[in-house]
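Table 4 source record.
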Amino acid sequence: PNELLDLQKNVPVLLFTGAMDYHANIDGVAWFCDQVFPAIRREYPSVGFWIVGSNPAPAVKRLAERPGVKVTGFVEDIRPYYSSADICVIPLRLARGIQNKVLEAMSMAKPVVSTAKALEGIGAIPGEHVLVADDADAIGRAVGDLLRNEGKRRLLGENARQFVMSRFDWSANMKLLEDLLQKNQESFRQD
């Protein structure tokens, strides 16, 4: 799409993905745009924040009126957006269960700045696989640190991808499930 040309210009891009009619996602991006992004833009005036996901609620659509914020709505393929992003931010304050957006970003070897709530259940090590921050100042500092340090972005992204491949690989997990089922079947026969 033509909008990807904007992503491929030499400007830093922060990315958030998800269903944009879901309350936790709406709250997260609105809070980020209100409390975090303005300070990042003061230090990095060209940085963009892309919100990519289906069914953006009216409150999310209005965020696109702010400087540097882009709301795409539904996209056919999310991978080009991940590939073109510099940092994935997951500022969820309300989260339950494993957040696939965290795993997707990590699997695409992207550095992730996440709240602790969004990271629950994944098992990634803060500082090694992702950066974790829960308040506006800490998130802003983490993003700024990554924007200043391309090597750190690359290393964090590579570590994230290796982590996801080792822990969330389908073939490895299917093997574990098959082994478990076989043990249960053998145990059943012995009874």
